[in-house]
Specification:
One of its GO terms (cellular component) is cytosol. Its main location: endoplasmic reticulum. FAD binds at residues 455-458, 473-475, 479, 489-492, 677. The chain is an alpha/beta fold. Among the domains are: 69-232, Flavodoxin domain (Rossmann fold), CATH 3.40.50; 528-676, 3-Layer(aba) Sandwich (Rossmann fold), CATH 3.40.50. The protein contains 22 helices and 23 strands. Strands 1, 2, 3, 4, 5, 6 and 7 form a seven-stranded mixed beta sheet that branches. A six-stranded antiparallel beta sheet has the order 14-11-18-9-10-15, covered by helices on one side. A hairpin with a 5-residue loop joins β16 (478-480) and β17. The termini are far apart. Mean pLDDT is 91; it is low at 1-22 and 46-64.
Length: 678
Amino acid sequence: MADMEAETTTQPEPMVDKEEPLFSSLDIFLFTLIIGLVIYWFMNRKKPEPIPEFKKLDTPAPTTRETSFIEKMKKMGKNIIVFYGSQTGTAEEFANRLSKDAQRYGMKGMAADPEEYDMGELSRLSEINNSLAIFCMATYGEGDPTDNAQDFYDWLQENDDENLSGLNYTVFALGNKTYEHYNAMGKYVDKRLEELGATRIFDLGLGDDDGNLEEDFVSWREQFWPAVCEHFGVEALGDESSIRQYELKEHPDINMNKVYTGEIGRLKSFETQKPPFDSKNPFLAPVTVNRKLNKGGDRHLMHLELDITGSKIRYESGDHVAVFPTNDPALVKRLGEILGVNLDTVISLNNLDEESNKKHPFPCPTTYHTALTHYLDITHPPRTNVLYELAQYATDPKEQENMRKMASSSPEGKALYQSWVLDASRNIVAILEDLPSLRPPIDHLCELLPRLQARYYSIASSSKVHPNSIHICAVVVEYKTKTGRINKGVATNWLKNKVVTDNGYKSTVPMYIRKSQFRLPFKATNPVIMIGPGTGIAPFMGFIQERGWLKEQGKEVGETVMYFGCRHKNEDYLYQEELEEAESNGVLTKLNVAFSRDQEHKVYVQHLLRNNKEELWKLIHTQNAHIYICGDARNMAKDVQTAFHDIAEDLGNMTRTQATDYIKKLMTKGRYSQDVWS
């Protein structure tokens, strides 16, 4: 219509004159010219619009991932499904071991990530004969589900009317006794499934990573499978031979642009970075600062700053930064030498089960060198299943016997594994060096080794003050083992070597943010009590920066009290200048520091808490103070909690039980928060 309107308004107004023709020659010429131009424009405008010519309708729609595990199990002839809630990869590893076990009992299993499937289908599992759901559930943080199990946890909480009466299940929980909420997620899943009508066919297994998680799992598994056989009326096939899950394919003539070089997810994602950044797509953050924090002593404590400019990454004080480290090049080289292989060979390990969602154990195609550097954990002592699978390659009968013994559930075997592998801190390189007849094919070794996991650090900065920078505070791990070898922590030694240079080269760290519940109070007027000895100071540097920023904005800020601890004032008093400046300018109301070894009797933060019990009790009981603890879970966090029990009992006129309940209520209300590790 717009074209037609334009056409009529440009026509000249006709003039009526009896003695002249209606249109002059000029009028006719102009009229013809205008009509011609309009037609020409109209025809040319239409040419770029041949919509039917586009081929988009002919391309197939992208395939959607199968979200029905029931249909997948039917299609693949599976009757056992092992779901895993995993943050560091251990629960996933256990799930894979259990799914492989099923073959030895004439059953077929599959490991499954609950995040990838519709968990509402659990009620349909009874459609499959002799079906069983196993749940390997790790607990993360303060009793939380792992990231990949969060949706499943929410579903369990929200669906009170769900009927799971046809579901057979069992749960193995992975946790750590040093934490307040030991195995909370596994216990909840076990209890909740029963409440919804499911049938527990074997007792809940509790794995303790503070003790011997591997032994806990092996002992539970040894009793679990006989119970399965009894429940379903099946027998073990007696086939104890190795079961390969992947097959090797070498790529001698491949285009190297199609080969993974350390990327976590998308090929070339480190060359062309695209937000959003997460665990499958980390951001390569340049290191702008890497300085030693301690003035003396035999340890190396460091402060790093990562530049996140332009990444659109946002973080809050108390969040964690996850980094993806690489293994020590010397260790990788030694592994190649022992096995006598060319580590530059380009390979793929392809899943023999073509229907599996997990096509490869790590990004493929890649080289052995890249796999051993970026993707596989070669520093932790191998678990018993790895020893069992590798034993067949030991040509010395005595060495083979010992490997099989360590992988068994016999008391003698468990003791040998504990002393020879765990207590001696033998990694796979040390085991190959100390068992000269053991020379497995490198592809089978790569199949068996667990994935190298991201490492989490409490962020030591506030985004209010440092919106384009993330700070890390860490101590380098290095120690001598019982065999005389020097073992080095993977991530901390890798970070230590991220030097800042002036020659244009920038050291980078693949990273992403993991959100935390470790948060400053919503009301800035609430007092905060922070207890963080050693590198536990990290999140509180962010808290102090944020409280200072709030004061600068003219906000009323409550009392901010810090309890820090270290060995010697002149050696490892971390961030001494920053802390003392924060106290002098009033951001820190009070700075309390325990130097544990500067006097005859050791003094720790819990001793200072008891010394200041009256002022602490007033802040907690009458002023709504929030308490924060960061650092060692095994000793410090427990001792600090005991100190608060003592204070509540003493000044609150409570019994021990009442004092314990009082602190628990603070936890429930979000006024007693812990960010601890063991």
